[in-house]
């Protein structure tokens, strides 16, 4: 077997024996385990989102009666040698527990079937006492290295859910059957052990019953299709946001707006630096860390022709007066909900005539998309509305070999040369939230109140695109807003961040005066 259950549950810390100077003498161990002040065990009240997380678990429980469900938080991911990336729990785990940025690496949520639903338990590696060598010798979980960690009682109070030590997860593995489901992508090592346990259960069934009559099925050497359906359902569970999630989205958008203001105030400094895009990125990321957990995704600070590169994240170019800078950025708040907003700014504060023409065409496309983003509409119609404007404007500017109407025909799409991405995606715990949802629930799904998604058309005229008149080449524009669908229609959560060319110019003038 690839893993032992014990290894999957409590993996051994990375070794550094060849360079370790950690004391190991009996005298040291005796001395370091004593002389500590008593720590008060304060059990916090349940956090605000605990009730919402319980309601989400109840919805999931109703979808899978009688089946054990395992949703891991995931583990630390190695960056280099013994350095890890900052931990972020899997979004499905965060959604079902409400733990957010306080989540512990290696934690696992288990929904154990009962006669009338499921019992939920979070398993995590409880803190080691100061009489344990983990306290000072384990750099991955030792409090001497990473600071205080919560107790089982504290997590149970915080999340308002049953909590047990990670060692107790062994009993769950022992009870795994072929109907047990696991979120595979969250923790590959744990997934392997669930798979082995399912195979073991299946083999024991074959040995003790007539295999043809056995009420189980399992794909050998396959991805296990029921797990895929489970991941899909976890994704679709987030398509409509509850009131807590919507409030968190508002906080994320507000923090992001402050980040854009910081960037604009710093434009004189950024435009004087050889790698000014890096300064733009750094200024925004400072706001994300001060007002939230982190950025929700790598900030795009794309100045000049870099704005034509959709996912430009190297951010090593100059910010040149006279150019536009496209900034696609979002603050992820401590609950993990993230904004995703793009504004395209004239570096020197004023659009040229051609820049303004392109910018206002993109805004026209966004406004057309807003007009159809209403309850009862089909999600893909939002994109179609924006594309009608993009086709019409690029045809007017002489860029298309056909008319706008011909370009919009299903077998054509010439206008998409200048905007190859979609106009909208769902937004929430992930910047591309609900990504594993079925097409008929997502792209072909009906828009409902409580959905949150982006509207983000753009035009990108590559500097070497010979189909584009010379004065347009090297101009890239995107305007992206975060939209909440209400019973009355779309609410632009980011409407407070200026959108029109005139308002953007006034905004920059005010903040850089």
Q: Specify the biggest β-sheet.
A: 5 strands, mixed
Total count of helical runs of at least 4 residues? 17
Q: Tell me, rounded to a whole number, the average pLDDT.
A: 93
Q: Percent helix among the residues?
A: 25-40%
Explained architecture:
The chain is an alpha+beta fold. Helices cover 36% and strands 14% of the residues. The chain contains 17 helices and 17 strands. The strands form 6 sheets. The chain has a 5-stranded mixed β-sheet, sandwiched between helices. A 3-stranded antiparallel β-sheet has the order 9-10-12. Helix 11 (243-265) packs antiparallel against helix 13 and helix 14 runs antiparallel to helix 15 (379-396). The radius of gyration is 26 Å and the shape is globular.
Blueprint (SSEs and pairs):
Layout: H1 5-9, H2 26-32, H3 50-63, E1 69-72, E2 78-80, E3 83-84, H4 91-97, E4 108-114, E5 117-124, H5 134-137, H6 143-146, H7 152-159, E6 162-165, H8 169-175, E7 181-182, H9 188-208, H10 225-236, H11 243-265, H12 267-270, H13 276-291, E8 294-295, E9 300-303, E10 324-329, E11 331-332, E12 341-346, H14 353-372, H15 379-396, H16 404-407, E13 452-455, E14 458-460, E15 476-478, E16 481-486, E17 489-492, H17 501-512
List its salient traits.
single chain; 17 strands; globular; 17 helices; five-stranded mixed sheet; 513 residues; 36% helix; three-stranded antiparallel sheet; alpha+beta
In short:
With 513 residues, the protein is an alpha+beta fold. The chain has helices spanning 5-9, 26-32, 50-63, 91-97, 134-137, 143-146, 152-159, 169-175, 188-208, 225-236, 243-265, 267-270, 276-291, 353-372, 379-396, 404-407, 501-512, and strands spanning 69-72, 78-80, 83-84, 108-114, 117-124, 162-165, 181-182, 294-295, 300-303, 324-329, 331-332, 341-346, 452-455, 458-460, 476-478, 481-486, 489-492. The protein is built from 17 helices and 17 strands.
